[in-house]
RNA sequence: GGCUCCGUAGUUCAAUGGAUAGAAUAGAAGUUUCCUAAACUUUAGAUAUGGGUUCGAUUCCCGUCGGAGCUACCA
């Protein structure tokens, strides 16, 4: 509709107004609620160019459009806003065409380019937590959105399966896992503990012992005992100690932290973990076996979690495979002068001309850092998928700087596709008690949380659900759908860019702006349709009144909502649309009889609207990764 | 210190530079002889602050105040 109006304005505008029309003047928006009209043209730009009052210009355009455009029944001018009123037949035609399209809102599959969406990307030393849930639901929903918008999509993750953090868990397990009567140490099989939980437990164990040792080292240092301390550490310690004098409290705390950090590196246990990393990189068989065994446990655990979350991946990248890939690229870039080498052998890039810092890309000992690996992985991906038109990295906003640097480096290395890499940066999830901190035990475990929301949904649904006809299995599927639906919606309805607060009580709410509210409406419509049987109607006899138009308008906005949501990498746009639609429908449902309506044309129109609202809700929820139960 | 992001009802969230700043929740008052009351209706309540640009600013620019993140030869 807007396109047609724009065309006629461009072709006839000069004739009507006597000046050339600049396309940028033509700005439409949906007519404001409570004002008569369907679409609004803003005429301020026209008025400025013509040097006439906006209302007068609007009146002139409106008169011409009304007489020359068939679907414009009327117009109304309010200040600089020209509101067009569309004809009733237009709306009934819209409803019929929406009804005929079973995949309404979904673009032709693979009609757009191939994109890769990376999400999850966990470390293999501890279980997934609430922060991962936002990441994973978001990444999955964006992948689904891109698909719905016509893109071919590859879902991927990089598994951070190597490094000092893994060695910490390995070492702690090796040292502290109790030996059982059959000579085995604790495993998922013999303890019944989920693999990722078990490994995480030993990571915590490591940190505990580390803290104890740090205390001991500090006590020794303060007592003047520097045996077992490296000369460099001693020198640094004395320097920091001197720096403490005469500083304010805040500065002193910062220095104390640095001293602690120094002491950490002098502990036996951390040295042992570092030794282990060296042995791992040297492919020491025993270390390698331990590493692959414990990672295997973690993957089994993650699989269970991912399955419950309802997400999957098309392609996995393991850091242990890719961490060396970037090295060649760095050496190549060094030869071409993109990077430079310091006397100690470390390789850097100077980004100060771009307003950033100098950044390390390869350690003095020749080993890879995070950045090295990411350079390599990105290039590898474009090798693996030559048709790839871009990568979406779903990673928290604390890494904004990292990705800015990464994309800049890729660009400087001469990869034109660097411009097609996008950091989908999302905000942290806070708890009412403040930030999640693993050290303080305030982390919300993903499995525990999912269990909790499903339990809550179970209780509530048993209280008020219409589930008498459902079997035991169907019920448990339903409880799962409602609990998980609520959780997903709760995390997805907020603009991804924004930091959000996770309130455990609100996350299991069923009323208001929640997933179950939308699911409920969908189920209720299905119940209505079951009772109605097949819908017989005469296309030309449909009766459309004001209340119906509001809903058809909303339905018609679904495809552009998908587009906007996909373009902005924001499932929240879609979530909020579904909520608006649900609210509007519920209000309509309350005041308009449907099955009992005696006017055949009106009854048919209302049934068609109901059916298509349910269709759109289901399509939309599915994109968000949320189930839409038939009854609840 | 430097860089980046964020300040909207009591609370949690909305609003491509547009009309009277929307919802939810908590509060107050209502709606079941009728299609699922997990619903609906009514009511009260907010743009941190000072400037600027604009016909028009929650939105863009500058300052102030408040909060967060980054600033590792960790990933």
Can you put this structure into words, describing what you see?
It is a single chain. The protein has 632 residues and is α/β, with parallel strands linked by helices. The protein contains 24 helices and 14 strands. The chain has a five-stranded parallel β-sheet with strand order 7-6-5-11-12, sandwiched between helices. The protein has a four-stranded antiparallel β-sheet with strand order 1-2-4-3. The chain has a three-stranded antiparallel β-sheet with strand order 8-9-10. The protein is globular, with a radius of gyration of 31 Å. It starts with a helix and ends in a 9-residue tail after the last helix. It binds one RNA strand of 75 nucleotides through helix 2, helix 16, helix 17, strand 14 and helix 20.
- The low-pLDDT segments are none
* CATH class designation of the domain at 2-86: Alpha Beta
Task: Give the overall pLDDT as a whole number.
Answer: 93
Q: How widely separated are the two ends?
A: 38 Å
User: What does the overall shape look like?
Assistant: globular
Instruction: Describe the largest sheet.
Output: 5 strands, parallel
Query: How many strands?
Result: 14
CATH topology of the domain at 2-86: Gyrase A, domain 2
| Strand coverage percent | 5-15%
Supply the helix-strand structural class. alpha/beta
Oligomer: single chain
- The spatial strand order of the largest sheet comes to 7-6-5-11-12
Query: Fraction of residues in helices?
Result: 55-70%
Give the radius of gyration: 31 Å
- The DSSP helix count reads 24
């Amino acid at each position: 509709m807007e396109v047609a109006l724009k065309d006629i304005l461009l072709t006839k505008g000069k004739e009507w107004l006597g000046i050339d029309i600049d396309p940028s003047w033509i700005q439409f928006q949906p007519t404001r609620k409570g004002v008569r009209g369907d679409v609004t043209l803003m005429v301020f730009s026209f008025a400025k160019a013509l040097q006439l009052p906006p209302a007068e210009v609007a009146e002139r355009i409106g008169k011409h459009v009304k007489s020359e455009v068939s679907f414009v029944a009327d117009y109304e001018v309010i200040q600089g806003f020209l509101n067009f009123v569309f004809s009733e037949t237009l709306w009934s035609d819209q409803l019929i065409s929406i009804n005929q399209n079973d995949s309404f809102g979904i673009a032709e599959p693979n009609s757009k380019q191939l994109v890769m969406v990376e999400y999850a990307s966990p470390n293999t030393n501890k279980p997934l937590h609430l922060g991962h849930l936002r990441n994973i639901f978001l990444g999955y929903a964006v992948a689904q959105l891109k698909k719905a918008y016509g893109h071919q999509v590859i879902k991927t993750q990089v598994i951070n399966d190597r490094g000092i953090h893994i060695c910490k868990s390995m070492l702690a397990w090796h040292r502290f896992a109790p030996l059982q009567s059959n000579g085995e140490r604790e495993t998922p099989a013999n303890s019944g503990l989920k693999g990722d939980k078990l490994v995480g437990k030993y990571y915590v164990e490591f940190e505990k012992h580390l803290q104890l040792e740090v205390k001991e080292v500090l006590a020794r240092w303060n007592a003047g005992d520097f045996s077992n301390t490296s000369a460099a550490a001693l020198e640094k310690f004395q320097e920091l100690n001197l720096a403490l004098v005469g500083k304010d409290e805040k500065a002193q705390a910062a220095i104390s932290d640095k001293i602690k950090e120094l002491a950490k590196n002098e502990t036996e246990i951390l040295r042992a973990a570092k030794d282990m990393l060296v042995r791992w990189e040297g492919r020491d068989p025993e270390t390698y076996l331990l590493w692959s065994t414990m990672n295997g446990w973690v993957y089994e655990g993650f699989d269970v979690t991912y399955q419950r979350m309802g997400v999957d991946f098309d392609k996995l990248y393991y850091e242990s495979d890719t961490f060396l890939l970037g090295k060649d690229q760095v050496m190549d870039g060094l030869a071409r002068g993109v990077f430079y080498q310091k006397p100690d052998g470390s390789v850097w890039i100077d980004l100060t001309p771009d307003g950033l810092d100098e950044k390390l890309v390869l350690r003095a000992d020749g080993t890879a850092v995070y950045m090295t690996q990411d350079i390599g992985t990105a290039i590898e991906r474009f090798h693996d998928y030559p048709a790839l038109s871009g990568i979406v990295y779903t990673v928290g906003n604390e890494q904004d700087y990292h990705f800015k640097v990464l994309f800049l480096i890729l660009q400087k290395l001469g990869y034109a596709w660097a411009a097609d890499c996008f950091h989908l940066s999302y905000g942290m999830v806070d708890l009412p008690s403040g930030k999640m901190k693993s050290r303080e035990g305030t982390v919300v475990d993903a499995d525990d949380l999912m269990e909790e929301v499903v339990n809550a949904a179970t209780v509530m649904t048993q209280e008020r659900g219409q589930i008498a006809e459902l079997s035991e299995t169907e019920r448990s599927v339903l409880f799962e759908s409602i609990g998980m639906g609520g959780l997903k919606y709760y995390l997805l309805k907020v603009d991804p860019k924004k930091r959000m607060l996770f309130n455990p009580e609100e996350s299991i709410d069923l009323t208001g702006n929640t997933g179950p509210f939308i699911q409920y409406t969908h189920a209720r419509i299905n119940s209505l349709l079951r009772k109605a049987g097949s819908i017989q109607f005469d296309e030309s006899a449909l009766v459309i009144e004001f209340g119906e138009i509001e809903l058809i308008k909303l339905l018609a906005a679904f495809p552009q909502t998908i587009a906007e949501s996909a373009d902005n990498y924001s499932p929240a746009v879609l979530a909020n649309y579904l909520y608006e639609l649900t609210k509007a429908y519920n209000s309509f449902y309350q005041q308009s009889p449907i099955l009992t309506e005696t006017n055949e044309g009106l009854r048919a129109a209302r049934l068609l609207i109901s059916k298509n609202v349910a269709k759109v809700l289901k399509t939309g929820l599915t994109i968000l990764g949320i189930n839409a139960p038939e009854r609840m």
